[in-house]
Amino acid sequence: MTITDVARAAGVSVATVSKVVNGRYGVAQTTASRVLEVVDQLGYESSLVARSLRRRRTNVIGVLVAEFEPFSTELLKAISKAVEGTGYELLAYSGGGDTSDRVGWERRSLSRLGGTLIDGAVIVTPTVQVPTDEGIPVVAIDPHTGPTGPATVDSDSLAGARMATEHLIGLGHTRIGHLGGRRDLESARLRELGYRQAMSDAGLTVDPSLVLTGGYRPDLSDRPAHELLDRPDRPTAVFAANDVSALHVVEVAGELGLRVPEDLSVVGYDDIPEAAAAQPPLTTVAQPLREMGAEALRMVISLIESEGPRTGRGHHTRLPTRLVERASTAPPAS
């Protein structure tokens, strides 16, 4: 559908349609109303813009992610389920681009979508401090700097990491490696801190050479996973900061002839569907992804409909985590 089709159906010029959908002066109210009706009837691609001009609201919430990887996809499913019955629609948008262009994708995405296509946004795992000057309410899930600034939703990464590490210690492991997440994320820092605290509380010394960064992605986890496992004094267990990295550790272990869990125990973090379907099924720390997505949606709708300031500053929700024991962990070999 083109602007010419709209003009023909409404009986006006293309210039008139352009003025109406772009909010310019010089068109009679009755003519503008007729054009907007045709826009809605024909499904012209600028209908969201027209609706926002007419009602100052699109009733669309953006869910912005760097890429559609398992964690963000599960959150998107949760938000999609929670939006039912709210009167809002969702726009899922991936703004990460190339690997070299990932940092700062949030601001670029908001500047493209905010104010005309979406009324508010849920940003999943941002790379920088969430912008507050784009004119629309924003809620961050797994925020870059933790619960500061605009509204945020996350889970208790510190407690979750402690549970994972204490589980391995309880099985008898003393040489435990940690494959960390993104260095720029507060959640990754807290998961490493939880690992270190659990080791210290058990009287165990952390070997610095066993603490490496995996970046939450399999391609970034490959080299450090090989470094951890392809050495004579390898760890007997690995706690990875997310399930994607943990599953890659299991894969690398197989390549090196190590059996999981007989030769190596592995614990992940997130409890994505692939964790339960893996062989062996992955022991992991479950984040309440459904609740996190629903809470982020509730918060952003509340901010959109608020009469007061809509930055969400001071609105922070942290949800508990739990350990899910499966078949990827066992006592160390004698």
Structure write-up:
- The protein is α/β, with parallel strands linked by helices and about 325 residues long.
- The chain is about 40% helix and about 15% strand.
- It has twelve helices and twelve strands.
- It has helices spanning about 5-10, 15-20, 30-40, 45-55, 70-80, 105-115, 155-170, 185-200, 220-230, 245-255, 275, 290-305, and strands at about 60-65, 90-95, 120-125, 140, 150-155, 175-180, 210-215, 235-240, 265-270, 285, 315-320, 320-325.
- The strands form two sheets. It has a six-stranded parallel beta sheet, sandwiched between helices. A six-stranded mixed beta sheet has the order 7-6-8-9-10-12, with helices on both faces.
- Helix 10 (about 245-255) links the parallel strand 8 and strand 9.
- Helix 1 (about 5-10) crosses helix 3.
- The longest helix is centred in the middle third of the chain and has 16 residues, at about 185-200.
- It is elongated, with a radius of gyration of 24 Å.
- The model has no long low-confidence stretch (mean pLDDT about 90).
Task: Supply the key terms.
16% strand, six-stranded parallel sheet, elongated, 41% helix, alpha/beta
Please write the string of helix (H) and strand (E) elements: HHHHEHEHEEEHEHEHEHEHEHEE
Q: Which strand order spans the largest sheet, edge to edge or round the barrel?
A: 2-1-3-4-5-11
**By helix and strand content, what is the structural category?**
alpha/beta
Number of strands: 12
Shape: elongated
Q: What Rg, in angstroms, do the CA atoms define? A: 24 Å
Which whole number gives the mean pLDDT? Answer: 89
Question: pLDDT under 50 segments (min length 5)?
Answer: none
Strand percentage, roughly?
15-25%
Main sheet, how many strands, which sense, barrel? 6 strands, parallel
Helical stretch tally: 12
- Helix coverage percent of residues? 40-55%
